């Protein structure tokens, strides 16, 4: 049986995914400004790794 918190999270999961996609796009844009001839796939891997690290840093 799911907890109330899990049920609430299930309802909001699509919003969390959308927020993370928007955050990735924000940093794609910043990388693109700083590095005109960017390797987008490589940049995405770096950005996502930094996002994972940041999530690990704030994990309680």
List keywords for this structure.
60 residues
Question: Any overview of this molecule?
Answer:
- With 60 residues, the protein is mainly alpha-helical.
- It is built from two helices and no strands.
- The relative contact order is 0.10.
- The model has no long low-confidence stretch (mean pLDDT 92).
Topology of helices and strands:
Layout: H1 4-34, H2 40-58
Helix pairs in contact: 1-2
The shape, in one word, is elongated
Question: N-to-C terminal Cα separation, in Å?
Answer: 24 Å
> Helix amount, in percent?
over 70%
Low-pLDDT parts are none
Order of secondary-structure elements:
HH
Rg of Cα set? 15 Å
Short description:
The relative contact order is 0.10. It is built from 2 helices and no strands.
């Amino acid at each position: 049986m799911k907890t109330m918190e899990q049920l609430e999270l299930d309802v909001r999961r699509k919003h969390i995914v959308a927020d993370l996609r928007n955050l990735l796009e924000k940093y794609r844009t910043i990388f693109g400004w700083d590095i005109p001839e960017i390797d987008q796939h490589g940049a995405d891997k770096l950005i996502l790794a930094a996002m994972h690290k940041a999530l690990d840093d704030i994990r309680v």
